[in-house]
Design a protein that fits this description.
This protein is an alpha/beta fold. The chain has helices at 2-14, 16-36, 53-56, 75-83, 107-123, 143-173, 175-180, 186-216, 224-247, 252-269, 281-287, 291-305, 313-347, 350-357, and strands at 44-49, 64-70, 89-93, 97-103, 129-135. α5 links the parallel β4 (97-103) and β5.
């Protein structure tokens, strides 16, 4: 028994990747997620508009942070700013009162704002009325923001984990050698491998969206084509990540480890569960590098707020750039992993041909 224990420790010591996952990853998760896992919103960006905007803006207490003041703007401007995701809260002033408009798709910010406005209304003079109005998700339903996030999770799961496991399984089974000797280019093999996962992910996402709309009354106020374009760009990123993981993994266990290493930060730091505004700046910048952050913005913006593509173009642009980079690297890595099998497959028939000539 002691010999077996020593043997396992030695084997574990040689497997540096698994050892790093067991020691470094828990510490990293504790530090990063310990700071990120917070529902408390400490800062609420607001826009103050209307004839009394210049008088109200300096008087707003914490946690409100005035980003802009526009005395000439009206309610239509406020609704457009909320729909396009420019700010989550707008103070619409008049000579006799204030109407606070909230973006219901920003659930935690809206909840924190409602509590702060209640306290602010108690301190306001009696002649000044303070009204609160929630747009786009009036009931502040959790399902309205979680269903778009679940659609993003499905694309991430299928594109990253399932794709990486499928490609690694092909390498372990020796199927890549058979594909290498066929009259197919590496690009044909690459596209043929990822096409089924692309279709499955698209179907799963469609089922989740339709079921969420039917079961939980989740709205879909925006353009279906704009949503489909965002999903397409994000799926290219996830499929590329899956192929990259498979190209550096020797077996399915390593592929799962690397996939989880990429999945956990995206789930925790993308704003899917915890709002980015509640994270400290030292952790928040990681969220702005993750592709899931931008697809969540696209999905919630289009479905819940009905935001147009012109208001979400930075998210589309980021997904397009990172998708091109990741997908290009995945194609090159797949070509390199296929090249040794192709050379081996071409050399294999030579001994038989020499024996036949003799």
């Amino acid at each position: 028994m002691w010999a077996m224990i020593v043997k396992e420790f030695r084997q574990l010591r040689r497997d540096r990747r698994t050892l790093a996952m067991m020691i470094v990853l828990p510490i990293l998760m504790l530090v990063v997620f310990g700071y990120a896992a917070s529902f408390d919103v400490k800062s609420i960006p607001v826009r103050v508009i209307g004839p009394a905007a210049e008088r109200l803006a300096p008087a707003l207490p914490d946690p409100f942070e005035v980003e802009s003041v526009d005395p000439s703007a009206g309610r239509s401007d406020a609704e457009t700013a909320l729909r396009d995701g420019e700010v989550p809260v707008v103070f619409l002033t008049s000579d006799t009162g204030v109407t606070v408009l909230l973006d219901g798709s920003q659930l935690f910010i809206a909840t924190s704002t409602r509590g702060a406005i209640t306290a602010l209304a108690e301190r306001a003079p009696q002649r000044v009325s303070v009204a609160l109005e929630v747009l786009f998700n009036p009931g502040l339903e959790t399902s309205a923001i979680m269903v778009p996030g679940l659609a993003a999770m499905i694309l991430l799961f299928v594109g990253t984990i399932i794709t990486s496991l499928g490609v690694v399984r092909e390498r372990q089974a020796g199927t890549l050698e058979q594909l290498a000797v066929m009259p197919l280019s590496p690009t044909d093999v690459f596209v043929g491998k990822i096409a089924p996962y692309f279709v499955v992910a698209a179907l799963d996402m469609t089922v989740v969206i339709v079921a969420g709309m039917w079961l939980f009354d989740v709205p879909f106020r925006g353009s279906v084509l704009a949503f489909a374009l965002g999903a397409l760009l994000f799926l290219f990123v996830t499929l590329g990540l899956g192929v990259l993981i498979s190209s550096v993994s020797e077996n399915q266990g390593q592929a799962i480890q690397l996939a989880l290493l990429l999945l956990l930060p995206q789930i925790m730091l993308s704003g899917l569960i915890f709002p980015l505004s509640s994270m400290p700046p030292g952790v928040r910048w990681i969220g702005y590098l993750l592709p899931l952050t931008y697809f969540v913005e696209i999905a919630r913006g289009i479905m819940v707020r009905g935001a147009p593509m012109s208001a979400l173009w930075p998210s589309y642009l980021y997904l397009a750039v990172i998708g091109s980079v990741v997908f290009g690297l995945a194609t090159l890595r797949f070509r390199r992993s296929l090249a040794p099998a192709e050379r081996h497959g071409r050399r294999r028939p030579q001994p038989a041909l020499e024996g036949a000539s003799r």
